[in-house]
Design a protein that fits this description.
Elements lengths: L2 E2 L12 E5 L3 E8 L4 E8 L4 E5 L5 H9 L6 E6 L11 H8 L2 E5 H4 L8 E3 L4 E4 L2 E7 L8 E6 L5 E6 L2 E2 L2 E2 L5 H16 L7 E4 L5 E2 H4 L3 H7 L2
Parallel strand pairs: 1-2, 5-6, 6-7, 7-8, 12-15
Antiparallel strand pairs: 2-3, 3-4, 4-5, 9-10, 10-11, 11-12, 13-14, 15-16
Length: 225
């Protein structure tokens, strides 16, 4: 598995993964499957324990990310950000092969191919080795969509948003009520509490920061998508 160490927030479909190294954690991003889904492998640098966000597709590539590298990490947990099928095609295969526990929000759990070992809700935490991650429930894209945040004490927060927030707008919704719910949660639970230098990692495509997107919030609300 080729892994680039110069992290920019962009990865190409079928291309190499990209790793970002923080003091306590590494974050490796890879694009998998025909819908250019992002999967994120978080590894505690002290314990080498790992957590995967969205086993979206291509179990073989995700397995290579865990095994075909120096000092292979110990995958303990797989978090699914929401119920849409393009985000869990490899969940059962990777969880079974690696003996990892799975986690998701209760409201999205019923349709997943593996029923979660851990149900998470807004304000809960998960551990990856010695690193603590916080769960943020963002209602609207799906009932149980979640984001995961690592508030790096040596830097800025790192936010994994699934399909609830992208550069340029919030995720797709199917009704005006769902859009209102999502934009409200994105404003109240992300932009109102996290700083501008928060780097966010979406479920598809390139990364961005809250500061870059913040000036567009009123425009997003006005246009309704």
């Amino acid at each position: 598995m080729d892994v680039l160490e110069n992290y920019t927030g962009h990865v190409d479909p079928e291309g190499p993964a990209a790793r970002r190294t923080l003091d306590a954690l590494t974050i490796t991003k890879i694009s998998v499957g025909p819908m250019d889904n992002n999967a994120y492998l978080l590894v505690c640098r002290s314990t080498n324990e790992a957590l995967l966000i969205d086993a979206a597709n291509d179990a073989e590539r995700l397995t290579d990310l865990l095994t075909d590298v120096p000092n292979p990490p110990d995958l303990r947990t797989i978090v699914t950000t929401h119920q849409h099928g393009d985000h869990w095609q490899a969940l059962e295969a990777v969880a079974t092969a690696r003996g990892a526990k799975t986690a998701a929000h209760e409201l999205d759990a019923a349709v997943l191919p593996v029923q979660p070992d851990v149900l998470v809700d807004h304000g809960d935490t998960l551990e990856v080795g010695e690193v603590t991650l916080s769960i943020i429930h963002l209602r609207g894209h799906t009932p149980g969509s979640i984001a995961v945040v690592y508030d790096d004490p040596a830097g800025h927060p790192h936010l994994f948003t699934g399909d609830s927030l992208f550069p340029g707008g919030v995720g797709k919704t199917t009704s005006a009520d769902n859009f209102a719910s999502l934009i409200n949660d994105v404003e109240d639970r992300l932009f109102a509490v996290l700083p501008d230098d928060t780097w966010f990692y979406p479920g598809h495509g390139d990364d961005s920061t809250l500061g870059k997107e913040r000036p567009s919030l009123a425009e997003w609300r006005s246009r309704g998508w």
